Amino acid sequence: MKTLKLGICGLGTVASGVVNVLNRNREEISARTGCSIEIIQIASRTKKDNCDLTGIDFTTDLNAVVTNPEVDVVLELIGGYSPAKELVETALQAGKHVVTANKALIAEHGNELFALANSAGVSLCYEASVAGGIPIIKSVREGLAANDISSVAGIINGTGNFILTEMRDKGRDFEDVLKEAQALGYAEADPTFDVEGIDAAHKLVLLASAAFGITLQFKKAFTEGISKVSTDDVNYAEELGYTIKHLGIAKKRGDGVELRVHPTLISKSALISKVDGVMNAVVVTGDAVGDTLYYGAGAGSEATASAVIADVVDVARALVAGAKPIVPGLGFEAEALKDTSIIEIGDVVCPFYLRVMATDAPGALASITSIMSKHGINIDSITQRENEQVGDMTPVIMLTHEVKEDVVNLAISEIEQLSNTAGVVVKHRVAQF
Ligand code: HSE
């Protein structure tokens, strides 16, 4: 039986999960691959006692792993940009396969790294980068390969979903829940990435490329975080029959691709609205298959390790077959990838949730609705909350029909100038599933 030798950079939450799962399921994995998989070296600043490192060479020198001639596959599990990028480049240039959970690295530098892997004839695998344990990259790239995929949308940040769920269900404080997510190993090293949607945008960019065959264009993704979501809006949305989720949406249109991450109202009747806590879910729509939904743990030690090891299994199977990587990294041959333009957020068309404080006096609603009417915005529902008056102002909540965001923004700026309204108009987008 052949042996595939792994070297791991990092020994954090994900790497210790990889060690534990490989130790525990060694026989099953070997039976699935026809190959023995051995971790021969791990590099990290510190040793951990949450996994058994017996028989593994431990070093603090990350370079030792990527230059070790015995290592066939490097698992880059340190995260971040540097030295992760340099380590991956060194490993690929040395003809080693690389498996990574580093979405930031792939989303922002993937175009060049895949080119490097292609020219070296090795695999660069990143399943664990998106939605933790859910095999969503394989599903999009392989399981749905027959389809013209029109959209991919989902809850792809566990920390953000955990925070929104705890705030809604237990009235817990934002900071308090974030601290718990950090202690549980869900949050990124810099939790701003989770809260402000940067982590979700990294994942969305990878999903969009695998779904639509486009180059990675992270800088063009629109990102809005959950810090803008107030408990009041969560409650008003609930009363209107919606849940607010932090969603990543990638949608193909005739003139380009929408790539956006933002808090989103979803009807409570949609399956994805029921995805709570650290769980992730992704809806992929293809012309042949229709809507498909993938659900699972989006973060955590062994859930993410499950995806890392699945990539290692792919490499092992190719090794046993004596083949080069057969699935292109982004699911399309490199020369077929398109630089499709990314649609500006102002050109996105969807229904909106708007909330404004208005004076409780004759004419206030009329002046708001006349602005909406002037801009051709069709109001689906409007509610004035008489019993939630603050001074002489009451909240007015509107749901619109589909309209272009630029048009809504024009109406909002006029409503904010009215003498019978106060403060900013809160705006959230609505998605239909
Ligand atoms: N911080 C990420 C999350 C980890 O909360 O989803 C998994 O990518």
Descriptive overview:
The chain has 433 residues and is of the alpha/beta class. It has 3 domains: 2-133 and 301-336, Rossmann fold; 136-297, 2-Layer Sandwich (Dihydrodipicolinate Reductase, domain 2); 347-431, ACT domain (Alpha-Beta Plaits). 36% of the residues lie in helices and 27% in strands. It is built from 14 helices and 18 strands. The strands form 3 sheets. Strands 7, 8, 9, 10, 11, 12, 14, 15, 16 and 18 form a 10-stranded mixed β-sheet that branches. Helix 4 packs parallel to helix 5 and helix 5 packs parallel to helix 10. The longest helix is centred in the C-terminal third of the chain and has 21 residues, at 301-321. The chain is elongated, with a radius of gyration of 24 Å.
What would you say about this model in short?
With 433 residues, this protein is an alpha/beta fold.
List the helices and strands and how they pair.
Layout: E1 2-9, H1 13-24, H2 26-33, E2 35-43, E3 57-59, H3 62-66, E4 73-76, H4 84-93, E5 97-100, H5 103-120, E6 124-125, H6 136-143, E7 149-155, H7 158-170, H8 174-183, H9 192-195, H10 198-212, E8 222-223, H11 231-239, E9 242-253, E10 256-267, E11 279-286, E12 290-297, H12 301-321, E13 349-350, E14 352-359, H13 364-374, E15 379-384, E16 393-400, E17 403-404, H14 405-417, E18 421-431
Parallel strand pairs: 1-2, 1-4, 2-3, 4-5, 5-6, 8-10, 10-18
Antiparallel strand pairs: 7-9, 7-11, 9-10, 11-12, 13-17, 14-16, 14-18, 15-16
